[in-house]
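User: Hi! I'm working on a homework problem where we have to compare a predicted structure to a textbook description. Could you give me the structure for the chain below?
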Amino acid sequence: MKTVYRFLLIAVTAIALNILQTLPLWGQTPNPPPPTAALGTATSGTYESVACGVLVTSPFGAPGTPFPQGATEGTDYECGYLTVPELHAQPDGNTIQVGIVILKSLQPNPAEPLVMFQGGPGGSSIDIFAGMFANATYDERTEALLQNSDNEVTQRVRARAGAALAQLLRRDRDLIIFEKRGNRYSKPELTCARDNGTAVPNDELEALRECRDRLTAKGINLAAYNSVESARDVAALIDTLGYDQVNLYGVSYGTTLVQHIMRLYPNRIRSIILDGIVPRSA
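Assistant: Happy to help. Predicted structure tokens:
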């Protein structure tokens, strides 16, 4: 529950910080809205592979690494950062890095990849998806990942199902696990010091203001961390990796992001899977 609670805190904090970003402090003039890129445009990013130990820790701090057991880094999976403008309408401005994990297809000439998005929006796609796919047997990682399951039998079934699902999905195509901007394995990570699963103090608004001030003092533009900019990140990834079209899978808030991508880049999408739909207006 602590991990789920942490994800919820990150999501609520991100929403609150964006609201606070629009509120002037005493004696200040409100900031003008940031420029937006035109519909359907994306600034090309750059992708760089990195050692997975640099990008990722094991899921929920459990032992091991969140990748298929027996798999070889570089051959069966890889990690990397997508570097994109913080604001796509300002391609010469500040840049950020989005964490990417690619589980490679079992075929030498794979079909269009499946790009996967977790919910939240504070949920880590890498923790959830890579962690789920990693477990071929029941072990400490499975227990950490599925700590809220009803019983050990359920845990075993779900763990093996996750590993089997990964093998099935990788049969014909790459799986691209996309860590949304601002999340755990992206840079910067928009986590407040108090978002650690402990009780939030009564002065929540003041704590959020302090967090906002700390992040903005680092030069972070909180207004840039939204669904539209994230959708443009995905388009930049598609272009950078050289795909004509991709398949999209989103769960919970991830379905909202998929809908934004559909609206902005319909020609880049081959198919979509919406798992637990959250409308864009929600």
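For your comparison, note the following. The two ends are 25 Å apart (CA to CA). The chain has one domain: 34-190+225-275. Good luck with the assignment!
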